[in-house]
Amino acid sequence: MSNSSSLKEFLLLAFPDTWQLQLLHFWLFLGIYLAALLGNGLIITAIACDHRLHTPMYFFLFNLSLLELGTISTTVPKSMANSLWDTRAISYWGCAAQVFLLLFFFAAEYSVLTVMAYDRFVAICRPLHYGMLMDSRGCVKMAAAAWSTGFLCALLHIANTFSIPLCQGNVLEQFFCEIPHILKLSCSDAYLRELGALVVTICLVFGCFICIVLSYVQIFTVVLRIPSQQGQHKAFSMCLPHLAVVSLFISTAMFACLKPSSLSSPILDLVVAVLYSVVPPTLNPLIYSMRKKELKDVLGKMVQWVKGTQQLQLLHFAFFLDLYLAALLGNGLIITAVACDHRLHTPM
To answer: What are the residue boundaries of the G-protein coupled receptors family 1 profile domain, all occurrences included (predicted)?
Structure first.
């Protein structure tokens, strides 16, 4: 028996015993992580560098990409490291930090998506008041409110969860620290203290969901009244990327929360966790870049700049690419050699 005062670490989900499968897991997560970094990084850079994208819609997309980078960076690198070094351990405070950051990024992301729905509502249903309602000061306040909501929600849950005595061991059947799995380690009915925070969160989630639904009901009502097909297509094209991202976020989160306990198993829990914590940050940049013409144009210009004909740019690009690939290859070979050869498993 153990309790939370003497608990020093948690053990995360065990990966396959064979080294080949562990390496496969590492390279798969590395590819997904780099794709998410590249996609969201390109969107952040494009919006920050091109003044034509300094509009409320892209300002909120900028915030969304930052939050998605935070979400995937909280879970995937630690899982990759554990797989590579054949360990399951995460420190008690490392677990607490992971839970806090995950809740913070998720709650803030959901709040930003709600604000983006309001932005689309004002742009389509109240176009004459758009400049007044969505001025720069108002946008900053709404973004700050979204980030603050995430912080307060995370603080509320972290204070409740990690004040509960834990006496059912330290094994978490998940590849990152997740509140439901931590509560399974609690003593008797001590987890009931988390119900208050859960009720507050459910009210927040439901309120945001109602705002998003009402916004789109009014948007579709107005769009369907537009006489020209071209006008309808333009209006729908403004909303479809956001609607697709919201649907992906809500559907994966709802599946994770409403999954019957009878279906619970380590493999299914792992798949569900990947669906809601890893897939959205990877796919969302693709969804937005495919549907937003202005963003595609800016990204195209960035690619053209890389492909520019000026010799100095090409020389600079080739030089740093060679250095980067050499560093990747060299360090990758050292990591693989040390990890694979038991004779090198020494402190040095």
So the answer is: 39-288
Phi, psi dihedrals of residue 186, rounded to the nearest 5°: -75, 160
Please give the Cα distance from 241 to 207 (Å, whole number). Answer: 22
Instruction: Return the bridge partners of 89, or none.
Output: 11
Tens of pLDDT, residue by residue over 33-44, are 888 888 888 888
> Which candidate, 109, 281, 275, places its Cα nearest to that of 208?
109
Q: What residue spans define the domains of the chain?
A: 9-307, 310-348
Q: Residue 315 has what pLDDT?
A: 45
Least confident of 19-28, 114-123, 211-220: 19-28
H or E segment to which residue 90 belongs: strand 89-91
The predicted model scores a pTM of 0.79
d(CA 47, CA 61): 9
CATH number of 9-307: 1.20.1070.10
Distance CA 18, CA 13 (A): 15
List residues bridging with 91 in a β-sheet: 9
